[in-house]
Amino acid sequence: MTEFILVVDDNPTNLSVLTQALKSAGFKVRVAVDGESAIEQVEYDQPALILLDVQMPGIDGFETCIQLKSNPSTYDIPIIFMTALADKESKLKGLSLGAVDYITKPFEQEEVLARVNVHLKLRSLTKTLEEKNSLLYQLNEGLEQRVAERTAELKKAQIQMIQQEKLSSLGELVAGVAHEINNPISFISSNIEPAKQYVSDMTKILQLYQKHYPQPVPEIEKESDAVDLEFALEDLPKILDSMKLGSERIQNISNSLRNFSRSDITTRIPVNLHEGIDSTLLILRHRMKACGNQPEIKVIKQYGNLPLVTCYPGQMNQVFMNIFANAIDVLQDSNWSSHSQSEPGMANEKETPVDQLPITNYQLPTIKICTEVIAKNNAIIRIADNGSGMTEEVKQRIFEPMFTTKTVGKGTGLGLSICRQIIEEKHGGNLSCISAPGEGTEFVIEIPLG
Fold it and tell me: Given this model, what pLDDT does residue 306 score?
């Protein structure tokens, strides 16, 4: 039976665009204009993948997905939602119902083809894994070790593909955003200084007029009073200074985005790891601000004198992103309302500087980053949080692929597995975790300097 892709959309234009793009890429395509007909088609001929519109007459895409996932014969067909809804809740809802991805309208042809290819490859790998497992488990006990090795290889290949796709897509997205920001903000910032000079020149001329013609005609005097000319002349330079400060802030963000992505670097180069950490924190800064009953997450940096470290900078930034994002999730899920709002460790302040206290001494959500060079000529990065910590059972499994303690739709269980692969296999280092219930969590990254 020939495999095909089923496109479900009530919009003829969308169907035409997607069908043409997929056929041009060599895929066989069938179409359905609503959820009911899509379910009927799938029941008698199953596609390799479904592109499913969210908003349709009759049953919408969410309900269609629910019915397909509740049917044992169709539950494993990958579903990619197509939606014009950009809100986070709609995306999370689709993923929680069992969809593997989503595409935002209007479509970008290259993005659609890239996502379709990725999930078809993943489905092929999964089928291959299931078939191999089914075959190997029928053999005698002497082949059990080979089954485990083959399974590990397939999982590793799957994780590597996901890692490469995520890193490439994220890098291209971040670098593109940084580029788009840089051009207009450069135009604004480069024109602020000339504008300030023009304002200064015009202010001098107005002041000369006021000096030599102290009694203007009634019409000018009336208009000057109406616009409050004196205040405007005083406030305009301040406005320009604020604009300059804001443009510099945006330029810093743009530089941090470009530093974070580093997607064009495919070889190991000497880099400043502190810059990568700072760029990642800047990108995540919005998640650490106070919101409702959730207090602001404090970040404490104790940077040592690290030399340049030879590494893959984009991949190292991905490790920092995963660890920081996990720490933020844990801290946001913790209840801080009953904690004291006083500064941490005040009783010990005379003996120990506040920023050098153990992470458990902090009574507000805190992430602490320490870096140093140890005798083995390795760089050490410690990232600790004062969240709820982990049980020994959970700690032993956190680096396993697909293992997660997060709710459905919030975590894939691949982040820390990918982190360990990057640190240990790509850089010859070591990634470990120190944690206990109520004692917070610390991740320790150790990589060679060269």
Answer: 92
Give yes or no for residue 346 having a pLDDT over 50: no
User: CB of 386 within 8 A of CB of 434?
Assistant: no
The Cα–Cα gap between 37 and 213 comes to: 83
Least confident range from 137-146, 191-200, 350-359, 418-427: namely: 137-146
What is the rounded distance in angstroms from the CA atom of residue 328 to the CA atom of residue 152? 30
Q: Does residue 131 carry a pLDDT above 90? A: no
Cut 0.85: pTM above it? no
Q: Three-state secondary structure along the chain?
A: CCCCEEEECCCHHHHHHHHHHHHHCCCCEEEECCHHHHHHHHHHCCCCEEEEECCCCCCCHHHHHHHHHHCCCCCCCCEEEEECCCCHHHHHHHHHCCCCEEEECCCCHHHHHHHHHHHHHHHHHHHHHHHHHHHHCCCCHHHHHHHHHHHHHHHHHHHHHHHHHHHHHHHHHHHHHHHHHHHHHHHHHHHHHHHHHHHHHHHHHHHHHHHHCCCCCHHHHHHHHHHCHHHHHHHHHHHHHHHHHHHHHHHHHHHHHHHHHCCCCCCCEEECHHHHHHHHHHHCHHHHCCECCECCCEEEEECCCCCCEEECHHHHHHHHHHHHHHHHHHHHHCCCCCCCCCCCCHHHCCCCCHHHCCHHHCCCCEEEEEEEEECCCEEEEEEEECCCCCCHHHHCCCCCCCCCCCCCCCCCCCHHHHHHHHHHHHCCCEEEEEECCCCCEEEEEEEECC
Q: Is the pLDDT of residue 327 over 50?
A: yes
**β pairing state of 79-83 and 29-32:** unpaired
For the residues 178-192, what does the mean pLDDT come to? 71
Distance from C-alpha of 293 to C-alpha of 291, rounded to nearest angstrom: 6
Band of pLDDT at residue 186, cut at 50, 70 and 90: confident
The rounded distance, in Å, linking the Cα atoms of 383 and 181 is: 31
